[in-house]
């Protein structure tokens, strides 16, 4: 798979998100989605309605991660580090990220953030995910990856991946990301810098999923920091 990482960086800088098409083949998507039934692979299960998060459920994978998930985490991280460090510099945040994911995870674990955060999500008819941010502790990598494992129009209808962006003294801007099966969306976790007339300022982003009208929707989330 060839990725124009310069274009990815430009999209992230301009919009807070970027889409990479066909990161996974259909067979890989189906194999990853099928892991949801294997409880021994997960550390916890969250039923969204119990917590006011929406409707549907998700499970956090346990260590050791499935090989495909581990490879994706390791492959994306070094490509995103230059963007993450550039964003932190622009936003006046002193923290910088090391070049390898292994080094960053060691930092998380030393601070007590030792629970893995990659997850699989499952939605049925009527399910949705409220707008939220995946933070989990003091150490937060500012970008994450969402992979759609089902095919819109065939496996489900509705269920659009959505984001909102809140700029100071302005109303929220809605964003809909048109993903197909196997596509990856790289998104801002929390803040991103925007260049203003007086220099860069921070905008706040959240993401979620609109109501699924029919069928079943499966997603994988690759979060680079671990949880406390």
The number of helices is: 5
Oligomer description: single chain
Q: Kindly provide the radius of gyration, computed on alpha-carbon positions and rounded to a whole number of angstroms.
A: 17 Å
Q: Can you tell me the CATH topology?
A: Jelly Rolls
Q: For the residues shown, what is the average pLDDT?
A: 96
CATH superfamily: q2cbj1_9rhob like domain
H and E string: HEHEHEEHHEEEEEEEEEEE
Unreliable runs:
none
Number of domains: 1
> Helix content range of the residues, please?
25-40%
Separation, N- and C-terminal Cα atoms: 34 Å
Question: Count the strands?
Answer: 15
* The CATH class: Mainly Beta
Largest sheet report: 7 strands, antiparallel
Going across the biggest sheet, name each strand in turn.
1-11-7-15-5-4-2
Secondary structure category: alpha+beta
Percent of residues in beta strands: 35-45%
Write structural notes for this entry.
The chain has 228 residues and is an alpha+beta fold. The chain has a single domain, classed as q2cbj1_9rhob like domain (Jelly Rolls, Sandwich). The chain is 25% helix and 35% strand. It is built from 5 helices and 15 strands. The chain has helices at 5-15, 26-34, 48-51, 67-90, 101-110, and strands at 17-20, 42-47, 54-55, 57-61, 119-123, 128-132, 143-148, 156-158, 161-166, 173-177, 184-188, 191-196, 199-209, 212-215, 217-223. The strands form 3 sheets. It has a 7-stranded antiparallel beta sheet with strand order 1-11-7-15-5-4-2. A hairpin with a 6-residue loop joins strand 9 (161-166) and strand 10 (173-177). Helix 1 (5-15) packs across helix 4. The chain is globular, with a radius of gyration of 17 Å. The model has no long low-confidence stretch (mean pLDDT 96).
